[in-house]
Structure formats: C-alpha cells, structure tokens
Amino acid sequence: MPTWTGRLFPPEHTTVDKAHGRLEIRNIRTSTALTGYLTFPYAAQVFSIQRNRTEIVSQKERMETVYGITSLTPLKADPGRLLCLARGQWSIENRLHYVRDVTYDEDRCRARKGKGAQVMASLRNLAISLLRMAGARYIASALRFCSRLGLHVLRLIGVQVRL
User: Fold this and answer.
1) Beta strand pairing call for 22-31 and 13-19
2) Which residue has the higher pLDDT, 20 or 30?
C-alpha cells in the first residue's frame, strides 16, 4: 500500500463488530492506481483489508491483512460495499458448510481414500445447489421430499423420466 512519511494512508472505510466474545475492527484501503500494471483480466481495483480481532475475556489480539483484486469499478463498489462483499463471502461459506456438516453428517463420512472424499463433497455441493435453485429453503426437508419422488427427482436437472 502507498506510504507517506512511513505511515499508511487512513482507511477509506471501517467497521466494528462485537460478537461471539470478540471485538473485530476491519479497515479497507482501495486503489485503482495498479490496474494498468496488473496482468489480471478485467482488474478494476485492488484492495487490502486489515482485521484486528481482540478476544474480550483474554484480551488476546490477532491482526490479519488480506489483499484482493476485483473487476468492480469504484462506481459499482465503493470501499464500504467491497468490505461488505468480502464479509458476505463468509456467510455463503458458513451456510454451505453448516448444511454439509449437519444435514449430510459429512464429518462421519468414511470415504477417505484417493479422491473419494472430494468427489462426495462435490456431489453434496451439487445437490445443495440444485435444491436451492429449485427454491428449497430448508435442505433437510427438501431431501426428504426428493427421496419420495424416486426417479422423478431427475426433473430438477431437466431429465424427463417415463415409467
């Protein structure tokens, strides 16, 4: 990031969250100055997000800096929106992993050799995505419903079955 007299420019946007026994402060700095130098296709902005996390009880502190490139221009995504989008990515990840852990009981899966675990995880992700695209709000109840459909469940991927 650009420096001036040895200090970073002030952050363009800051958020403060207190939850789960932690205080987390996130700062974002963005720039379009590097877009002409990057060989990354469609790069419109670069950014750095600095996260300062403090455990409330133990006062243990942890600092982390992540860097990113986006195709969103500053008009489409100001620093506040970029910070929100980066934070929102985790809710997508958590939502998917929670379903895989709870509904599919993935932690007790016995497929561990070769590519078996990766293939099974991909199939679970596919099933979850298909159910969400079909409008399912609750994956567990949607799976129970689909189990009663038999081969007709293939309609979710556009396959017509004649019995």
Assistant:
1) antiparallel
2) 30
